[in-house]
């Protein structure tokens, strides 16, 4: 029975890994399109961590930087299938990505639906809330990479 559990755990971990790779590939690629650059600028241009990029690189340039980081994160998570260190680093990059995007919720316009407040999510809240589970998934990938690194040295 324990052998079967291990097989299921590996299957679930692989499914999680490749789903995250797909998500980062799609999100990252979209950042190179004008419509996505405009959408990201709505939140990111006034955010201190990213706001400096907009005067320097413009809307498309800033979005391209974010897209490149997302594509690199997906690549590291993918490489984690073969490299424990890449899995750990990719998972941590994903955790950082989603901590940052979730921090947009602080003071974001339309996080709660106007006239209702919590727990009724507005447009921004609906857009950002999915990142909670994506953060947890990236944390699981990072922990898996760390566990595999420890198992190799033990």
UniProtKB/TrEMBL annotation:
Key words of the record: Membrane, Transmembrane, Transmembrane helix
Segments passing through the bilayer: 62-82, 89-112, 132-150
Cellular component annotations (GO), alphabetically ordered: plasma membrane
Example of a GO biological process term: response to hypochlorite
Protein name, UniProt field: Inner membrane protein RclC
Protein source organism: Sphingomonas dokdonensis
């Amino acid at each position: 029975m324990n052998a079967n559990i291990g097989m299921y755990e590996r299957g679930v971990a692989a499914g999680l890994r490749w789903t995250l790779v797909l998500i980062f590939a799609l999100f990252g690629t979209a950042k190179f399109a004008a419509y996505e650059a405009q959408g990201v600028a709505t939140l990111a241009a006034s955010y201190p961590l990213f706001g400096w990029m907009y005067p320097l690189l413009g809307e498309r340039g800033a979005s391209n930087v974010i897209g490149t980081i997302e594509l690199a994160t997906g690549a590291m998570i993918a490489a984690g299938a073969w490299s424990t260190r890449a899995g750990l680093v990719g998972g941590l990059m994903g955790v950082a990505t989603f901590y940052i995007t979730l921090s947009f919720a602080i003071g974001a316009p339309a996080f709660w639906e106007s006239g209702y407040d919590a727990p009724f999510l507005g447009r921004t809240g609906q857009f950002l809330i999915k990142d909670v589970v994506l953060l947890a998934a990236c944390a699981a990938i990072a922990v898996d990479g760390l566990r595999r690194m420890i198992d190799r040295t033990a």
